[in-house]
Structure formats: C-alpha cells, structure tokens
Specification:
Blueprint lengths: L3 E2 L6 E2 L14 H18 L1 H17 L3 H8 L1 H16 L3 H5 L3 H5 L5 E8 L5 E10 L16
Antiparallel strand pairs: 1-2, 3-4
Helix pairs in contact: 1-2, 3-4
This protein binds zinc ion.
C-alpha cells in the first residue's frame, strides 16, 4: 500500500484500505482538522445544511433567551470587558465615513455568508436577541457617479 502525506501535519501515513483516498492521518488533531474543513465546505456549498445550521442556532437562541443575560450576570469580568470594547467600537469611524469610502471598497464590506444579527439600540448597545441570517451578495452594475437611492 502506498503511503501518503497528511494534508494537515504533512507526515506520511498509510491510508486505511477501506478509505483509499484518505488524505489525513489518524492523529486526533488531524482528524479534527479534517472535520473542520468538511464542515466549512459544507457550510459554503450545501444550502440545506446551511439552512439546518441556521435554524438550529435560531431555535437554540429561542429556547435559551436568557443565556447571554445570565452569562453576563455570572461573568461580570466578561461583561465589563465587553462594555469597554463596545465603548471603543463606538469611537470608530461612523457610517458617514464608511459611506465616503470608494465604492469598490464598500462593495467588499459585506461578503456573502452567514451572519449573526443583533439589534443595536440608540446608545449603541446590542440587544441580547440574535438572528442568524444568510446574506448573499448580488453583484450590481453601478453607473459611474450615479447615486445609490436613499430610502
Ligand atoms: Zn496528520
């Protein structure tokens, strides 16, 4: 049996006869890497799987609405750190500045993918409820100098 190079650690290994195109050795960390890659590509290409994952997360959030509130209560340091980070974020460039960026940059701001959305109140603090949504970027043709309509 020919030996192969593990895609994760680069060590040579002998594929198991029942898995001829095995490309990861059997070490636990390499198998973990293999599963991680598999899940990542699943998420990217299998919309049913995406859907399931998103639904599962949403359902979990619904079943555990107090999770983050409780978590913050029992982890005051974590909550405090978050507050500080949020404060820093609030000082970051505003939407106006972002709107002034080159159009090509703006189009790249939001790649397609699965996002956790949370409502942010006027004081800039995110609410606990989180929605898991899939955002697909559709490419559009803008004429130069034409403005994007405001709603
Ligand atoms: Zn390996």
């Amino acid at each position: 049996m020919a030996s192969k190079k593990c895609s994760a650690c680069g060590q040579t290994f002998h594929p198991r006869p029942q898995v001829p195109d095995q490309s990861y050795c059997s070490s636990p960390s390499c198998q973990q890497e293999r599963r991680r890659k598999w899940q990542k590509s699943k998420l990217k290409f299998d919309s049913d799987y995406q859907d399931n994952q998103a639904r599962a997360q949403q359902a979990w959030s619904k079943r555990n609405p107090d999770y983050w509130r409780e978590y913050r209560k029992s982890h005051p340091k974590y909550a405090e750190r978050n507050r500080v980070l949020q404060h820093d974020r609030n000082k970051k460039p505003t939407a106006d500045k972002i709107a002034n960026m080159a159009l090509s940059d703006r189009l790249n701001l939001l790649p397609s993918g699965i996002y956790n959305l949370s409502l942010v109140t006027d004081d800039g603090i995110a609410k606990m409820d989180v929605w898991t949504v899939e955002i697909t970027v559709h490419s559009c043709q803008y004429k130069s100098k034409s403005k994007i309509a405001k709603r």
